[in-house]
Amino acid sequence: MNRAFVIAARRTAVAPRGGAFRAVEAHDLAAPVLRACLDDAGVAPDEVEHVILGNALSGGGNVARLAALAANLPPTVPALTLDTQCCSGLDAIQLATRMVESGAAQLVLAGGVESFSRSPLRAVRPRVKGEAPVFYDRPPFTPWPARDPEMIAVLAKAARGLSRGEQAAFAIESHAKALAARARLESEIVPVAGLAFDSFTRALTPALCARAPVLHRDGESELDAAGVAVEADAAAVVLVASREWAEAWLKAGHPVCEVFQISSFAAAPDDPPGAIDHALRDRAAGLDWARLAVVELMEASAGQAMMNARRAGLDPARINRGGGALARGHPIGASGAILAVRQFHELAGEATGALGLSAIAAAGGLASLLMLQRL
């Protein structure tokens, strides 16, 4: 089997819903990031063989194709949009990896894009004449309504045993790490609509967290707004390449990472944290987790991230060194790809052989994991 490599990785800033990207269509978020990856790697647009983007909210229309055309890639370059909700961005990278490993392609742009701000209104078509359409915020994640809880309830389940104070401390640290890293994060961000930094990040304090409204309380756990990632807009893309391209780029003195492992997992559909727990515990690669230099763990909520890190035995000092989604926001289809971009740039500062990990869970009991190794 051929090996796959990441030779470039870029993203937009992350902006909360209704913020700096409120008038920017999803494909216009992704297009400059596609071009930036090509420019970074010295790749001509006509050398790209496929574009794959994850997206959950655009409502169809193949946003990857729109983004590729908006980026002025040749119209002969195919493009594919996939939807596995929060896992979409990592799953797009997984599909690109498999294409390169199989020999079907040498260069694939892959990642995710999401715009909560510009997402369409969605409604269920009437069944009979005279019946009004029924608008909805999200589609069903299982065929069984009784096993399809709201995601906030699932996140609360994951946080059982953690106090609001513990969750607040985690959120405060996420924001603090992101603020401290703002200058070095600039190298991975492509400015769009005048925004070149993650605009939600702030100096969060215990007092502010204490005033945050409670979003869910079930007797055993309590979630407030400070401990849950906000809806957001962003795009993130990596350039997945064959060994030939990777070796030439490495010889020129640029950072390159080999795809060490990329996988998808599933658990009970009403238990997404169970899927990510399964992913983090996977030992198929015989990995000693102490070898991990960089961990990018999705922070859908403080409690979910904390519990997953504890169960997997991950070193807190290596998790989300530049802050996490609590400090940025959660652009569903782009979130997994943002983790991959962050992992790539964190590994660029590590020694040869360093390993990194990105992991994210999704509605319906799904999870995806990406491991890179610095060459």
UniProtKB/TrEMBL annotation:
<dbReference type="GO" id="GO:0003985">
    <property type="term" value="F:acetyl-CoA C-acetyltransferase activity"/>
</dbReference>
<dbReference type="InterPro" id="IPR020616">
    <property type="entry name" value="Thiolase_N"/>
</dbReference>
<feature type="domain" description="Thiolase C-terminal">
    <location>
        <begin position="272"/>
        <end position="373"/>
    </location>
</feature>
<feature type="domain" description="Thiolase N-terminal">
    <location>
        <begin position="5"/>
        <end position="195"/>
    </location>
</feature>
<protein>
    <submittedName>
        <fullName>Acetyl-CoA C-acetyltransferase</fullName>
        <ecNumber>2.3.1.9</ecNumber>
    </submittedName>
</protein>
<comment type="similarity">
    <text>Belongs to the thiolase-like superfamily. Thiolase family.</text>
</comment>
<dbReference type="Pfam" id="PF00108">
    <property type="entry name" value="Thiolase_N"/>
</dbReference>
<dbReference type="Pfam" id="PF02803">
    <property type="entry name" value="Thiolase_C"/>
</dbReference>
<keyword id="KW-0808">Transferase</keyword>
<dbReference type="InterPro" id="IPR020617">
    <property type="entry name" value="Thiolase_C"/>
</dbReference>
<dbReference type="InterPro" id="IPR020613">
    <property type="entry name" value="Thiolase_CS"/>
</dbReference>
<dbReference type="InterPro" id="IPR002155">
    <property type="entry name" value="Thiolase"/>
</dbReference>
<keyword id="KW-0012">Acyltransferase</keyword>
<dbReference type="InterPro" id="IPR016039">
    <property type="entry name" value="Thiolase-like"/>
</dbReference>
